[in-house]
């Protein structure tokens, strides 16, 4: 521990010295979340282990490379993490005993010992719904992800996903579009954005939500990191919504973990001819709740989630004074129709139609179906 103090200007604070020890143990080869947890049970604080001395470290049942590191940590890696932390007040490093660490995540198997975060760390302890699915979804799948996230975030849920291409990105964008909150769980260090094309999306999430990772600064996008983050998405959430997924999709890992954690699993059905619907159909056969509208999700979560009193009121449509909404509603029957069909019928722009449909759905006048389809609500003539 003297090494990190010597590298710091003046005397390092007690807090920084303690955090440095947590980070050193995180970087240590051969120590994953489970072994980290086991060592904490015995030593309580990583600094106690690092200060234990060579003779005690040699007696531990650990790989030789791990023992060598504990005796001589690479403090330059720790300094990189601390420099990142101190470079921006919206950067956070949260260990598992920090009060900011989400309580629900602590309970999962292999809980990450530290979380790196950009943005509002308080969001980590809010009521969340994970939305996951294919990286190469259909147009209807993207629409469903966007609109479900938009509506659910308006109901007060924080939307959590993995910032991957396809369904994940659409979910984040849907939440942001309604001024809702969203959390992205990444598979790299937070000094880089993956995929690179999501640089603007990452910026928007950091400004209006939170980006988190269990991986230290400088960690590249390695293939095995992305399945690992699924346990964090499910561990933070009240439930998981799978929008579109092939039978061997990584999204089904999130659903399985959610099921093992005793959480609700939701799946949107699709056409029997759509290969991306087969994973959802498989989940439904296994007991996942079939979802046609956001109300299906909110009803199921009712016992565990009550929309906050501070939630913004649902926008109202007065059909007598809003001719565009009345016109659109008259063109929606009890047979499913798509947004493209409504564009053709109404000649209204797609953005206006999407906004009107969201309000009509929230007021119970129309219902959204799988595949981006809409019908008039059963109780609305």
What does this entry look like structurally?
This protein folds into three domains: 2-87, no CATH class; 121-300, Rossmann fold (3-Layer(aba) Sandwich); 323-376, Arc Repressor Mutant, subunit A. The strands form two sheets. It has a nine-stranded mixed sheet with strand order 1-2-6-5-4-3-7-8-9, sandwiched between helices. Strands 10-12-11 form a three-stranded antiparallel sheet. With 381 residues, the chain is of the alpha/beta class. The radius of gyration is 24 Å and the shape is elongated. 44% of the residues are buried. It has helices at 2-7, 14-27, 33-43, 46-50, 54-59, 64-71, 75-86, 103-106, 139-154, 167-177, 199-208, 225-236, 251-260, 278-285, 294-300, 323-330, 339-346, 350-362, and strands at 91-95, 114-119, 128-132, 158-161, 182-185, 210-213, 239-242, 264-267, 289-290, 337-338, 366-369, 373-376. The chain has 18 helices and twelve strands. Helix 13 links the parallel strand 7 (239-242) and strand 8.
């Amino acid at each position: 521990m003297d090494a990190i103090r010597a590298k710091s200007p003046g005397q390092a604070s007690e807090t920084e010295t303690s955090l440095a020890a947590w980070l050193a143990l995180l970087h240590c080869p051969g120590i994953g979340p489970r072994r980290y947890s086991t060592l904490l049970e015995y030593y309580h604080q990583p600094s106690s282990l690092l200060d234990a001395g060579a003779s005690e470290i040699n007696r531990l049942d650990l790989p030789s490379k791990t023992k060598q590191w504990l005796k001589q940590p690479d403090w330059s890696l720790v300094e990189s993490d601390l420099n990142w932390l101190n470079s921006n007040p919206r950067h956070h490093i949260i260990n598992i005993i920090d009060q900011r660490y989400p309580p629900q995540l602590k309970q999962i198997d292999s809980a990450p010992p530290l979380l790196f975060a950009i943005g509002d760390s308080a969001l980590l302890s809010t009521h969340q719904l994970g939305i996951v699915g294919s990286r190469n979804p259909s147009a209807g799948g993207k629409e469903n992800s966007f609109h479900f996230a938009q509506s659910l975030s308006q109901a007060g849920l924080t939307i959590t996903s993995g910032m991957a291409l396809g369904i994940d990105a659409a979910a984040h964008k849907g939440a942001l579009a309604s001024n809702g909150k969203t959390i992205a769980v990444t598979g790299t260090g937070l000094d880089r954005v993956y995929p690179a094309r999501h640089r603007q999306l990452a910026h928007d999430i950091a400004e209006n939500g939170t980006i988190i990772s269990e991986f230290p600064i400088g960690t590249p996008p390695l293939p095995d990191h992305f399945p690992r983050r699924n346990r964090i998405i499910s561990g933070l959430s009240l439930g998981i919504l799978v929008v579109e997924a092939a039978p061997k999709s990584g999204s089904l890992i999130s659903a399985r973990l959610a099921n093992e954690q005793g959480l609700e699993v939701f799946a949107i059905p699709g056409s029997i001819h759509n290969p991306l619907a087969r994973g959802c159909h498989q989940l439904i056969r296994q007991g996942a709740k079939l979802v046609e509208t956001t109300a299906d999700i909110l009803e199921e979560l009712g016992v565990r989630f009550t929309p906050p009193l501070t939630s913004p009121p649902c926008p109202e449509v007065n059909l007598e004074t809003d001719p565009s909404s009345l016109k659109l509603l008259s063109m929606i029957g009890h047979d499913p129709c798509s947004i493209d069909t409504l564009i053709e019928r109404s000649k209204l722009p797609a953005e206006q139609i999407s906004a009107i449909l969201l309000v009509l759905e929230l007021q119970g006048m129309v219902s959204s179906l799988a595949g981006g389809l809409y019908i008039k609500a059963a109780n609305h003539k």
